[in-house]
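Action item from last meeting closed. Structure (338 res):
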């Protein structure tokens, strides 16, 4: 798709996002901090520039970090900050999104855009479309079902991974910030996540068709890799690759064992097994099931897991045919069926 058409589509989608999810108007201030080091960043910059004609546009590469920080700190609560980052902006020890939330600012963050190729730009822009009538009812319904499910089963084509435990209270990323401490986060939207209350109750076998490698990009082997899981830990695998072996060896070297923790359900219909983008943090919103390898998970505390000791949170994507919560199939053939 020509760049001009992608800019127009970006303008349309972020305009909807600003109205429906952020309730933003020209009565509030807005600052867009951007760079133009990659095509997707440039398209987003132009889209936001058109959608926010009153915003102050700041080229990060043309300003000193302290100058950018001062401008952001001068904003009022409920003002809007958009961060368009080919990598990840650094402002000394200023942890950007965390500090902006402390100032009660609304934040839209688009990080690590340069991990994606120019050919993936159209998929990424599509992922910014915000359908409130799709995300909110579906996300809340899935959250509720997770909250009452006694267990779950992930079927990846005859291989069954059993979650033999109730789940932790699910968190939603659906563009509804009502009652939350912070307004905004990392985009695109579209995920509900949890994990087993009893990690050791997870067992069985599961095929994964891709995983986040050491460069934080998705890696898709020719043949799906099968993980063998006992008491919540990956103990062996079949059809592995050198890149996946490196992930496992790194985790075992630094953490001793490979735990399965987060269980994520992506809702974003712009991504699928065939419509992919390279950045793992973006692709995890894809309409499917993923889970994490490694002890790191800041949301859910567990006995025996010290937050600072967890070093790895590696997303892997299950070749999911169905996922059941209790006796109810809630995912089938590439879509949630709640």
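Sequence:
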């Amino acid at each position: 798709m020509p760049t001009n058409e992608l800019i127009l589509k970006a303008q349309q989608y972020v305009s909807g996002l600003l109205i429906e999810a952020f309730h933003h108007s020209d009565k509030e201030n807005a600052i867009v901090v951007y760079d133009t080091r990659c095509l997707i960043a440039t398209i987003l910059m132009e889209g936001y520039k058109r959608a926010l004609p009153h915003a102050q546009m700041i080229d990060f590469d043309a300003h000193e970090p302290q100058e950018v920080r001062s401008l952001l700190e001068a904003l009022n609560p409920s003002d809007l900050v958009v961060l368009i980052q080919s990598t990840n902006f650094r402002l000394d020890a200023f942890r950007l999104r965390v500090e902006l939330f402390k100032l009660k600012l609304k934040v839209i963050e688009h990080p690590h855009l340069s991990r994606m190729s120019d050919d993936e730009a159209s998929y990424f822009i599509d992922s910014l479309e915000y359908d409130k009538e799709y995300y909110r009812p579906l996300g809340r319904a899935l959250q509720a079902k997770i909250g009452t499910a006694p267990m779950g089963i992930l079927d990846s084509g005859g291989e069954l991974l059993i979650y033999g435990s109730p789940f932790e209270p699910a968190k939603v990323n659906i563009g509804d910030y009502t009652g939350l401490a912070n307004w905004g986060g990392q985009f695109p939207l579209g995920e509900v996540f949890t994990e087993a209350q009893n990690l050791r109750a997870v067992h069985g076998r599961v095929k994964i068709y891709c995983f986040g490698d050491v460069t934080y990009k998705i890696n898709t082997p020719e043949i799906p890799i099968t993980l063998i899981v006992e008491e919540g830990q990956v103990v062996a695998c079949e059809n592995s690759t050198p890149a996946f072996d490196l992930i496992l060896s790194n985790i075992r070297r630094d953490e001793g064992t490979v735990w399965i923790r987060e269980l994520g359900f992506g809702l974003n219909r712009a991504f699928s097994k065939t419509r992919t983008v390279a950045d793992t943090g973006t692709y995890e919103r894809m309409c499917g099931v993923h889970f994490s390898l490694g002890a790191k998970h800041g949301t859910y505390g567990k006995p025996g897991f010290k937050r600072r000791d967890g070093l790895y949170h590696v997303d892997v994507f299950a070749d999911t045919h169905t996922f059941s919560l209790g006796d109810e199939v809630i995912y089938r053939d590439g879509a949630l069926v709640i």
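Note appended to the action item: Residues 63 and 311 are 33 Å apart (CA to CA).
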